[in-house]
Amino acid sequence: MLDSAFFHRWTVAVAAAVDREADRLTELDSAIGDADHGSNLRRGFAAVVDAQGEDPPGSPGAVLGFAGRKLISTVGGASGPLYGTLLRRTGKALGETPEVSVAELAAALRAGTDAVAQLGGAAPGDKTMLDALIPAVEALETAAEKDDTKDDAAAAFRAARDAAESGALATVPLRARKGRASYLGERSVGHQDPGATSAALLFRTFAEIAEV
Ligand code: ADP
Ligand code: MG
Ligand code: MG
C-alpha cells in the first residue's frame, strides 16, 4: 500500500529530477515551442516542495491535491494548468483514505488523465504529454490487475515507466496538433515532445522511489 509519505517523497524526488533535467526539457521545447518547459516545471515543483514543508498531510489525495493547486498557481505555461489538473483530479479521486493500492492509484490517474484530455482537448497521437501519460496509466492498470504483481508496487511502476518512456519516444515522428508546437505544423515532426518527456520523468520517479 502507498501512504502519504510515499507521495510526499515523490513530489520531492520529482522536483529534484525536474531540476536535473530542466536544461534538456527546455532544449526540447526550444525546438518546437518557446524554450521554457524546463524552467516552468522547475519553478512549479520547487514551489510545491517549498510550500508543503517536511511533514506530509494525512492522505495521498491531500498531497497530490496540494501539489496540483500549487502548480496551477505558479506555472504560467500550458503545462502548469495541465499537470496541476492531473494531480488535483487524481488526488480528488483518491479521497481521504490514508493508504492506497496500486490499482486505486491507477484508477485515480485514469480520472486525472481524462481531466487533462478534457481541459486541453487533446487526444492520443496529438504529440502531447498524453502520449506518455495514457500508456503509463494503462500499464499501471494492467500490472495492478495481475495477481502476481498485486503486492509488488515496484514492478507495476517499472512497467508504467517503460510505457511512458516508449510513449515519449514515439512522439518524435508525430505532427503536433495541440499547444504551441502545433503552430509549426509539419515542422514539428522529428522532435520529441517536451511534455511527453516530462510526463515520463514523473513515472520514472515513481519507479525509483518504489524500489526503496
Ligand atoms: P507552453 O507551451 O505554454 O510554453 P510548456 O512549454 O511548459 O508550456 O509545456 C508544453 C507542453 O505542454 C507540450 O510539450 C505538450 O506536451 C503540453 N501541452 C500543450 N498543450 C497541450 C494540450 N492542449 N493538451 C495536452 N498537453 C498539452
Ligand atoms: Mg513552452
Ligand atoms: Mg511558454
Helix-strand blueprint:
Blueprint (H helix, E strand, L loop, with lengths): L1 E2 H29 L4 H16 L7 H15 L4 H16 L4 E2 L1 H19 L9 H16 L7 H17 L24 H18 L1
Antiparallel strand pairs: 1-2
The structure holds adenosine-5'-diphosphate and magnesium ion (2 copies).
Describe the structure.
There is one protein chain. The protein is mainly alpha-helical and 212 residues long. It has one domain (2-211): Serine Threonine Protein Phosphatase 5, Tetratricopeptide repeat, CATH 1.25.40. 69% of the residues lie in helices and 2% in strands. The chain has a two-stranded antiparallel sheet with strand order 1-2. The longest helix is centred in the first third of the chain and has 29 residues, at 4-32. The radius of gyration is 16 Å and the shape is globular. The mean pLDDT is 96. Adenosine-5'-diphosphate binds next to helix 2, helix 4 and helix 8.
What is shown here, in short?
The chain is mainly α. It contains eight helices and two strands. It starts with a strand and ends with a helix.
